[in-house]
Design a protein that fits this description.
Layout: E1 6-12, E2 15-23, H1 37-49, H2 52-58, E3 60-63, E4 68-70, E5 73-74, H3 76-85, E6 90-92, H4 102-116, E7 126-129, H5 147-152, H6 156-172, E8 177-178, H7 202-217, E9 228-234, H8 253-269, E10 274-277, E11 281-282, E12 285-286, H9 291-301, E13 307-309, H10 314-320, H11 328-338, E14 343-344, H12 350-360, H13 366-382, H14 403-416, E15 418-422, E16 435-438, H15 445-449, H16 461-464, H17 471-479, E17 484-487, H18 498-505, E18 510-516, H19 534-544, E19 550-555, H20 563-566, E20 571-574, H21 582-590, E21 652-659, E22 663-664, E23 670-678, E24 684-694, E25 705-714, E26 719-726, E27 733-734, E28 740-741, E29 745-751, E30 754-760
Parallel strand pairs: 3-6, 3-14, 6-7, 7-8, 8-9, 9-10, 10-13, 16-17, 16-18, 18-19, 19-20, 22-30
Antiparallel strand pairs: 1-2, 4-5, 11-12, 15-20, 21-23, 23-26, 24-25, 24-29, 27-28, 29-30
Bound molecules: beta-D-glucopyranose (BGC).
């Protein structure tokens, strides 16, 4: 299906009739040029001079670990074979021992460059890395909150600035290309990669994704401080039915068009240079084998002109795992003909060998190879790899790991941490209170950072970050060791000394209980149930039984259910995976030196089997307007905390919600104004959130959907009037005929508790 145009439509006598002006649907558009004419011209010239073997070589990406004799030890003979014999185009990944210094990266790149300079055409190798919350495979780099935390800031400027630091420090590591941002839209909080995403909402993800693409690529991706992005994972990867990683997704085309594609389209329009394909399957078709998704939708409908990369080993998996190809040769044919430009093979030459045979036999047309290699070479030119050595000189990057960069990471953590509950204003705590710090996440850097940190699963953070503050150390620094008692209590999966924790609680005023999740990413993070682990529940229950006030600190990648004990805590703070500066930011919030301003980017479930999104349908939402609530059913929609929730130490009052039109037509922009006043005693940041409800529609409407937001700062007593524009697209959805439409009728605009009803004529 290829939506070329969306029409503003009207519902007349039960029939959908398209009227008036066609509108540009937000997920359709002409090709978006991502490479300059000059890069393309140079790439074409070079392409014309390449042999078939050289072309096919360019389409191979191998992991650096496949050129190691043992972890971290490079086998130069193997590396030479890859470049001199197979002409590979790209290398990825961190050495087998984990993150290395910028200097070591530079040495490695110099070796690679020296080898590629020995080839006939001297085509530079394109090195790519998972720098997903800072340059997290480089020791000493500045580590930001993981993406879920960045989303919780609801501050796109801050996200863009932070991403610029990641770009700078990745280039300082001699690497010009990152596999980020993650634009997945998780449909189950069980999914182990939820924290790599921006959460459950399309609009929030779209705006955050664009901020990151801009931050990474800047105006000129070839600049020595910018890197190319690889937006990922196209598409539907985060939607598995089971919530387990890399299991099937069922996504109707209509739903894909309305909720998943707009996130990618926005990043494509922001000129993202490359894209990584989802390892999953949608409706029974692995995405890597789908010409409809990779060519018809991605390249033709969304207009993507950049380079298309597979995910790890995913062509091989078409045969060995998905079983849609009878052998590897078939798998290569399917994927390349579907629209793949480069294969993350990642550690052998099966793709090379099979593709060569397929082109020779005419099963993969030469035109497809030329198209793929043109994209790869254009990206290399665009990045300036042919003009400047890509071995970074330390003195050109003196801000690497600097205090300036650290401050940005601190600010991002401080704006992400979300205060969910503050009974009887127990927070901020006064500094003269004695506290017990306990729980498995209280004294380790690895829980603050999560996966993709120094290593794939992030288990070595304590070795790499001896100088950074754990939560416990940040408390001790703030109020003095003499005021802080500590006992770990339990590990994530194991009981240790709960009785000791209970005993130590006797002599303190407040307990700070730090719980969360082990380190993981991808399939190793799959879980059998969403509830927080049993040892942690036991510790929480034992501490609650002491009757001492409890401040619960959540340090987790996804919202694990905690209802049985959380309802008895005095305060609850969600930290997500806040990065290396997270502990200091958390402690500053706990003592009131920072006023919290994070907001949840997902619904926090109350029950493990009630995982509705905030933008639920009315039938999922018994108790919402006009539902049958004449029986004593259990309400089906009752999250523990809702998307967008988060408290401040000050109070905000919303007044004067106005709209410039109460009736409007298909071409109108609606201007919405609202005034917000800080009515408390402290300066604070508020996230103004605008939701829209389509009262009646031909596709069951969502109870509400986010359409705009803005984070503002208000001093005590200060008022600001905020202005939002709603465009015709904001009133549209994808109808049964898979067209973007806005149907006449009433819409409700909601900001805080204020509403205005307007009518589309
Ligand atoms: C992940 C990607 C990642 C790639 C390279 C894959 O397993 O799914 O997100 O970019 O590995 O490390």
């Amino acid at each position: 299906m290829n939506i070329k145009k969306a029409m503003l439509s009207t519902w007349v006598a039960g029939m959908l009739v398209c009227i008036t002006t066609p509108l540009k649907a937000e997920v359709t558009g002409p090709p978006v040029p991502v490479f300059s004419k000059s890069s393309i011209t140079k790439a074409k010239k070079l392409l014309a001079s390449l042999t078939l073997e050289e072309k096919i070589g360019q389409m191979n990406q191998l992991t650096i670990t496949s050129f190691e004799s043992s972890p971290g030890v490079l086998d130069e003979v193997k590396l030479e074979e890859a470049i001199l014999k197979y002409n590979i185009g790209s290398i990825l990944n961190v050495p087998g021992t984990g993150a290395v210094s910028p200097k070591s990266w530079a040495k490695l790149m110099a070796k690679i460059e020296a080898i590629s300079n020995k080839t006939d055409k001297k085509i530079p190798i394109l090195y790519g890395i998972d720098a997903i919350h800072g340059s997290s495979y480089t020791s000493g780099a500045t580590l930001f909150p993981q993406q879920i935390g960045m989303a919780a800031t609801w501050n796109t400027d801050l996200v863009e600035q932070g991403t610029r630091v990641s770009a700078y420090e990745t280039r300082a590591s001699s690497i010009p290309w990152v596999f980020s941002p993650d634009l997945d839209l998780p449909r189950s909080p069980v999914w182990s990669r939820l924290w790599e995403s921006f959460g459950e909402d399309t609009y929030l993800s779209k705006t955050m994704g664009v901020a990151m693409v801009k931050g990474f690529e800047g105006d000129n991706v070839g600049d020595k401080y910018n890197v190319a992005t690889c937006i990922k994972h196209f598409v539907g990867y985060g939607s598995t039915v089971t919530g387990r990683d890399r299991t099937p997704s069922i996504i109707p085309d209509r739903v894909l068009q309305q909720f998943d594609l707009p996130i990618f389209k926005a990043a494509i329009d922001a000129k993202a240079k490359s894209i990584m394909i989802s390892s999953g399957e949608i409706n029974g078709t692995p995405v890597h084998a789908s010409k409809k998704l990779l060519t018809t939708i991605l390249k033709e409908q969304l207009g993507f002109q950049g380079m298309v990369l597979t995910d790890w080993q995913d062509i091989i998996y078409l045969h060995t795992r998905h079983k849609v190809a009878k052998n590897n040769r078939d798998a290569v044919k399917m994927a390349v003909n579907a629209g793949i430009d480069m294969s993350m093979v990642p550690d052998n030459y099966t793709f090379y060998t099979d593709l060569l045979l397929l082109v020779k036999s005419g099963e993969v047309p030469m035109s497809r190879i030329d198209d793929a290699v043109l994209k790869i070479l254009s990206l290399k030119y665009e990045l300036g790899l042919f003009d400047q050595p890509f071995v970074a000189k330390a003195k050109a990057y003196d801000k690497f790991g600097s205090a300036e960069h650290e401050t940005l990471a601190y600010n991002a953590a401080a704006e992400s941490i979300t205060l969910l509950k503050n009974k009887e204003a127990i927070l901020p705590l006064s500094k003269n209170k004695k506290i017990l710090v306990t729980g498995p996440t209280a004294n380790s850097m690895k829980f603050l950072n999560g996966g993709w940190t120094f290593t794939w699963q992030g288990e070595k953070a304590d070795t790499y970050e001896k100088d950074e503050y754990t939560i416990l150390e940040a408390f001790e620094e703030k109020i003095g060791k003499e005021n802080v008692n500590y006992v770990q209590g339990v590990e994530i999966f194991k009981e240790l000394d709960i009785t000791e924790a209970v005993k130590k609680a006797e002599n303190v005023d407040v307990i700070v209980l730090c719980i969360g999740e082990h380190n993981y990413t991808e399939t190793p993070g799959d879980i059998m149930g969403l509830a927080i682990t049993e040892p942690q529940q036991k510790l929480a229950e034992a501490l609650i039984a002491t009757g001492k006030p409890i401040v619960l600190v959540l340090n987790e990648g996804r919202p694990r259910t905690i209802t049985s004990f959380e309802t008895k805590t005095n305060a609850t703070i969600q930290c997500y995976l806040p990065g290396s500066e997270g502990s200091r930011a958390l402690i500053d919030i706990i003592y009131g030196d920072v006023n919290p301003s994070g907001r949840l980017p997902y619904n926090y479930p109350r029950f493990t089997n009630s995982l509705q999104k905030y933008n639920r349908k009315y039938t999922e939402s018994l108790g919402d307007e006009e539902q049958n609530d004449d029986a004593d059913y259990q309400k089906s929609y009752n999250p523990l905390y809702e998307f967008g929730a988060g408290l401040s130490y000050t109070t905000f009052e919303y007044t004067n919600l106005t709209v410039d039109k109460t009736t409007f037509s298909n071409s109108d922009t609606i201007t919405v104004n609202v005034t917000i006043k800080n009515t408390g005693k402290l300066a604070g940041k508020e996230v103004v959130q605008l939701y829209l409800t389509d009262k009646v529609a031909s596709i069951t409407p969502e109870v509400k959907s986010l359409r705009a937001y803005q984070k503002i700062n208000l001093t005590p007593g200060e008022s600001k009037t905020i202005n939002f524009n709603l465009n015709p697209e904001d009133f549209m959805f994808v109808n049964e005929a898979e067209k973007w439409v806005a149907e006449p009728g009433e819409f409700v605009i909601k900001i805080d508790s204020l509403t205005k009803t307007i009518e589309l004529k």
